[in-house]
Amino acid sequence: MTSTDVISQFQRYVIGNYTRYPVCLSRGEGSQVWDIEGNRYLDFFPGWGCGLLGHCPPRVVKAVQDQVAKLIHVPNTWYTESQGALGEALSTRTTFDGRAFFCNSGAEANEAAIKLARLNGRGSGSNGGDRYKIITMLNSFHGRTMGALSATAQPKYHAGVGPMLPGFNYAPFGDLDAVSQAVDAETIGIMVEPIQGEGGVNLPPEGYLEGLRELCDRYKLLLIFDEVQTGMGRTGKWFTHQHWNVKPDIITLAKAVGGGVAVGGLLARPEVAEKLKPGTHAATFGGNPIACAAALATIETIDQDGLLKRATHVGEQFAARFNALAEKSHLIREVRVKGAMIGVELATDGAPVVAECLKRKLLINATHQTVIRLLPALNITDAEINEGCDIIDEVVLAMK
Ligand SMILES: *Cc1c(COP(=O)(O)O)cnc(C)c1O
Predict the structure, then answer these.
(1) For 257-284, what is the mean pLDDT?
(2) Who is most buried in 105, 264, 316, 317, counting CB within 10 A?
C-alpha cells in the first residue's frame, strides 16, 4: 500500500473530523519516525505530547509485551499488582500525598476531577447548600467531552455543540483579581493548567499559582491543576506545579503517563479523594494491566536515564536556538520555554511554518494560530535538536 491508497481508504471509511497531513506513518524510534514509503522524519512533537520518551521507548515496549501475554484486561472489581504499584509510584512523587484514580485520557481525567469537586461541594455551602461551580481560565484546554469542554474557555471549541454544562465561570489566565471576583457562594474550585498548552504555551505570571492557592484557602475551594500536558517530567519536575511553592488538592494527568500508551488519571489529597466512593464514578478500562505496566516503565525510564535533568537541558538548548533566531528574524515575537515545553510566538500564522518544515521532514506543531509549539522527547539528542532547529531557521528566515 502507498500513502495515497491509505488516504483514499480514509476518505471512504473514516470520519473526517481531523485535519491530517498527507503522510502515513508506520514506525518510529526515539525522535525519528518513518512513513510507509520509507521516508524518515525528525519528530519535535511526538504523539502530541504523549511521546515523552520518543517513539517505542524500549522499557515500555518490553513491559507491554510481557504484560500482554499474561493478562490483558480485568475490571476494577479485582486487585492487580500493577495498578497498586502505579498508584504508589505517582503518589510518592507528589507533595500532597495524592491518592489515584485511573482512566484512559485527559478529558476523562478532568471529568473525574469535576465530579470529585462537585462531590466535595455537596452540602458544603455556608447555608448548607451545594457548591458546584468551578472557575477556569480563558484560553484553557481541558478536553472534548461535555464537562471538560464546558471547562474549556475557548469559544472555538464550543461552536455548534452547545449548550455547555452549567457551573463554569471564566477568568483571564494570570489575573488573580478576576478569579477573586468570579468566586461566589456556589463556587467549589479553581481549575487551571500550570502552563497553558493549547492556549499557546503561556507561563504563569510570578505569584499567580501561589495566589490561586491563597484564594482557595480563603474561600475553602479546591485547587485543581490540569497537568495532562505539563505532567510526568515534561518541564523538569515530575509535576509542573512543583516549580512553584504551591500544593494543589487535585491534579489530572494523561498524555505522557504511559510513554505513548493510553493512560489517564487523577491524584487527590486523601480528604478530598475519599468522596469518590463506590458508585460515584468508574472507568471500565481505567488502570488496566497494560496501561499500568507501560506507565511504570515510563517512570522507571525517567528515573534511570536522568530525564528530569535532561528536560531542563533540552529547554535550554531550544531557548538558545530560538533566541538566536529572534536576533535575525523579526517574525519571532517571544520565546516561552519551560523544560521540554516550548512555545515560540510568531508575528504571523504558524501553519505555513509547520507545512514548510514538513516538506523538509521535520514534524512540529502550531497552536493558538501564531504559536509554534514543540513537545520533544526528553531523550532527544543535542544533534537532533540542532538538525531540526537548522530547518526551522531556514524556514523562518525565508519568510517575509
Ligand atoms: C490534551 C489535553 C487534554 C485532553 O486530553 P485527551 O486525552 O485528548 O482527552 C486536557 N487537558 C490538557 C491540558 C491537555 O493538553
Answers:
(1) 98
(2) 264
